[in-house]
Amino acid sequence: MSAFLLARWNGLPLFWQAQIAGWGLFAIANLMAQRVAFHSYGVAFARTGLILLCLVAISTAMRAVYVSRRFEARVSIAGLALIALLSLLGALVTATMIVVAHEALPWLVTPDHEGAREFLVPLVHYFFVLAGWSLAYFWLRAELAEQAQHRKAMRAQAEALRAELEQLRLQLDPHFLFNALNGIAEEIPEHPAAALEMLRNLTAYLRHSLDGIDHTVVTVSREVAGLMAYLGVQRARFGNRLHTRLDVMPEAAQRRIASFLLQPLVENAVKHGRRDHGLELRVGIRLSGDTLHVEIENTGTLDTTRRPARRQRPGIGLENVRRRLALHYPDRHSFSLTESGGPACDKRVTATLELRGEPCGS
Question: What is the SS3 assignment for 322?
């Protein structure tokens, strides 16, 4: 029964919810006041019922006038004059109905409340009640209009954010596809079997990519599945020259993360890592409180002095990662590239990410 009533209540327009709640509280206060004034619960209930019926009907009619006049968010001088006029008319009707009810049912009033007082006191009292109702109505309407405008602006901002995130996300696919196909083309003349294995892994990767094309946020486990498909392409290409390890804390597996956020960093590590004695690549993901920690470590160096000039330009991958971090984790992330180790052959480069809270997007 309570669930049914709650469903019916939630189905009512906001105006009627406010009407019922506001006038209900007024009825309770008025009933107590009438009981004190007339020393009778019967008289108090009868007068409160009559008065409440009048006020609900009058306020509903006043609202129809206010809506038809299309008041702005702020009530003008003319609007205040209209509120005063309608409130006076409503109070006049209410006071008149009380007098008429008294004439028909004399027991509704005691001798010390007869005469002009029985008309003038309700007239003044309910004028202020209806004026207060009117001002509260306009305040609530202005507040709801402001909230609606805010929600509209938030939706527009969210749509713009989603569009940019999807653009950044899709930007990675042709970039990766070009590099993968170029690698396959290089392997075909001398290592056709490796090229065929790369093509199979590339197919698996693209299938994974297409499955998540409409999602800018995925779970860590799904992101790791994409990394494994990508690394499968690279292992087919480099064979024993590439050694990979993925360490994912079980608690972090179901944490949400921006999709394909890690793939450009792993691709960067494979592309620029040192492979003289075999490229070692490790991806570590762990969860600490509300912060997701990601480390992508590879053998190599950040020194660009010995790299070809074409590699000294900032890659699309890192630019993409930084922009997506700013959108998905505004003021809630850190990203760094550091170098550690002794001799050049033992140096390692580590990309470190700290992602606090849930990513924006869907």
Answer: helix
Q: Is this structure's pTM higher than 0.70?
A: no
Which one-letter DSSP state was computed for residue 346? G
Amino acid at 110: T
Let me know: does 93 contact 55? Beta carbons within 8 Å: no
CA 190, distance to chain mean position in Å, is 53
256 is written with which tokens? 């949400």
Q: Give strand pairing partners of 258.
A: 217
Number of H helices, E strands in the chain: 9, 7
* SS3 state at 233: helix
User: pLDDT of 302-338, one tens digit each?
Assistant: 865 444 444 443 455 788 888 888 888 999 999 999 9
C-alpha to C-alpha distance for 138 and 329, rounded to whole angstroms: 39
Report d(CA 322, CA 334) in Å as an integer: 10
Residue 107 sits at the vertex; the CA angle it makes with 98 and 55, to the nearest 5 degrees, is: 25
Q: How far is CA 121 from CA 72, 92, 101, 345, in A?
A: 33, 11, 16, 97
CA–CA–CA angle 77, 82, 85 (5° rounding)? 125
